[in-house]
Amino acid sequence: MDLTVIAYIVYLLVSVGLTVWVARTLSRNGRVFLADVLHGNEKLADAVNHLLVVGFYLVNLGFVALHLSQDDPVADARQLFEALSVKLGVVLLILGVLHLANVYVLNRIRRRGTLDREQRPPVAPQGYIPPAGGWSAPTART
């Protein structure tokens, strides 16, 4: 078997394995964060979490497939490791950037929801007190 084919097989196995592991980790640990972002709506948090995982798989596995081709043939073990390190390094960087982008967007949503909650009074107004002093409402002149 050609070393280029071995590089492809190892690259696919490691990349797909890493993608699955990262997606499961993010899904499991991100659920609590999503529930907070979505104000405790567990059903919506689960749905958004599932959609994010599906999108994560599609983007990452699509990138892994597009990044599979090798321009130069792999002739020896040294070139095999060099090719794998470059390809896997790029996949890991893409995984990290996508993760940070997801966290950034969700944190912005969470912050906006927190600001909305802080602007509401904790107790609804119970009455109206007119201003003190000599102030009176303007009257219409005839």
Taking the alpha carbons of the first and last residues, their distance comes to 103 Å
Beta content comes to under 5%
Please summarize the sheet with the most strands: none
> Helix coverage percent of residues?
over 70%
Mean pLDDT: 82
- Secondary structure class reads mainly alpha
Radius of gyration from CA coordinates: 28 Å
The tally of beta strands, per DSSP, is 0
The oligomeric state is single chain
| Number of helical stretches of at least 4 residues | 3
Order of helices and strands: HHH
Low-confidence stretches: none
Shape: rod-shaped
Structure report:
By secondary structure, this protein is mainly alpha-helical. Helices cover 73% and strands 0% of the residues. It contains three helices and no strands. α2 packs antiparallel against α3. The longest helix has 43 residues. The radius of gyration is 28 Å and the shape is rod-shaped. The protein starts with a helix and ends in a 23-residue tail after the last helix.
Question: What are the defining features of this structure?
Answer:
single chain; about 140 residues; mainly alpha; 3 helices; about 75% helix; rod-shaped
